[in-house]
Amino acid sequence: MPYHTDKASFGNRAEHRINSLSTTKTVETISRLRCISCGANPETPARDFRCTVCGDLLEFLFPGWTAGECPYDPAALKLLWLKRRTSSEALDQSGVWRFRELLPQISAEHAITLREGNTPLYHLPRCGRATGVENLHVKHQGMNPTASFKDTGMTFAASSAHESGFRWVACASTGNTSASMAAYAARGNMHSLVLIPDGKISWGKLSQALDYGALTCQLRTDFDGCVKILNDLVRQKPVYLLNSVNPYRIEGQKTAAIELMEQLGWEPPDHIIVPGGNLGNSSAIGKALVEMRELKLISRLPRLSIIQAKGANPFYRSVREFGGKKIEPMTADTLATAIRIGNPASWKKALRVLEATGGEVEEVTEVEIANAKAEIGADGIGCEPASAVTLAGLKKLRRSGFVKAGELVVLILTGHLLKDPDFTIKFHRGDLFRGTPDESEASQAKYLQRAPVVLDADLGAVIGALDGAEAERDKPRGPRGLTEENGD
Ligand code: F0G
After folding, report:
1. Is the Cβ atom of 175 under 6 angstroms away from ligand 1?
2. For the segment 351-366, what is each residue's pLDDT rounded down to a tens digit?
3. How much distance in Å is there from the Cα of 27 to the middle of ligand 1?
4. Ligand 1 pocket test, candidate residues 138, 174, 196, most atoms within 8 A of CB
5. What is the pTM of this model?
6. pLDDT band at 473 (very low <50, low <70, confident <90, very high)
7. Which single residue of 133, 184, 277, 429 could bond 158 by disulfide (Cβ 3.0 to 4.6 Å)?
8. 176 lines ligand 1 (CB under 6 A)
9. Is any atom of ligand 1 closer than 6 Å to the C-beta of 280?
10. Spatial separation of the C-alpha atoms in residues 35 and 16, rounded to whole Å
11. CB neighbour class for 469 (10 Å; exposed up to 12, middle 13-18, buried from 19)
């Protein structure tokens, strides 16, 4: 048995082909690039991954799947994917590469994996009761190797960079993409260049990029400004762009939805709710859902809804104000820095997903985000602020009647709590909104705050704190307590 490194092979290639063949009626997985607007089919993408005819985004298309005849036997495919979970091959152990039949082809010797994916699906009983949706679950993409959902797309796109022979990869980022890219570049022996907005990303994310050896440039602009510079850079320098306009990223990120369906026994939930920033993730999950239905892996589509922060809501406004006909870029501002994005690249793809699945778009305030994050935390699950927009959004969708009590709902948590501990500590100390116009609204949810207590090293003091906490627990909750949201 050969020793398998992280830059693994498929092992015995013949065996892989046999495995694949056993699942297919006719093997037709060859993918093609297509422009989402004008339909042009470039052989190879331009370095900015924009259509050279009309400038819009590209996507992967699998002509063999849309010919009307399903190329795979769905039951055999599900069995194969399950079997791979017991394999010792690096790529089989990856929650992305395990589903490679639904991805474009990348030569195995270029694959870079950190065994990404394989993220848990947790039931949230307290949040479920509070929102009146007992069947509430979260898929925690923050349990990936660099602690965000970006790893699922990055393993695939970084491998594509490696296959294309690039020495340098680059991204503009609000922090998570850069952390992920830097890790995968390092694993694949490539250099990475990170452009991040100065002062507007969390230390956790910045420190990851530094440790993984990226050339990290903090630009005096916002995320959208970083994107602009990067686009100009890749046109001049042989640098491989790893933002989510890169369609390989979207393909890798599709696997979160495939894995979710597998975890649910291939019985789709009623709703999936995701945060919306640059809108790559919603596009990827939606693409996977549509493809899985096409391939008869699932029989119906869940509704996919997208939640934005009110201070960074260009997509919400596009849908609500302009019927999705255009998007007006804005200067974004939110404490959920991961989604502090005013000009989302993938808005047209995300719009298509809303239309295909009958999903909704919502916006939530800063206080709603902070409270939702603490509520998820109280269920024993830690996430970063951007992820918590999903629960805050669910509350709104419950109130509007879009989500009903008996339905099965899955929130996608995109990043781990430890990505942004500053936010959490400020929240629990009651400092997050101090001196801001949100201060009085925030004070209504003080019962969610658990500030640390500084005491003398004295047993009596600790017992006093314990008794005080016990008495506090017995008190009824505040005026806007969790229990108030109950009911239909
Ligand atoms: N949640 C987290 C934790 C994120 O880091 C991001 C995006 C999103 C949600 C939004 O996902 O952009 O696909 O709609 N972060 C990017 C970054 C932009 O640079 O790390 P999206």
Report:
1. yes
2. 999 999 999 999 999 9
3. 35
4. 174
5. 0.93
6. confident
7. 184
8. yes
9. yes
10. 31
11. exposed
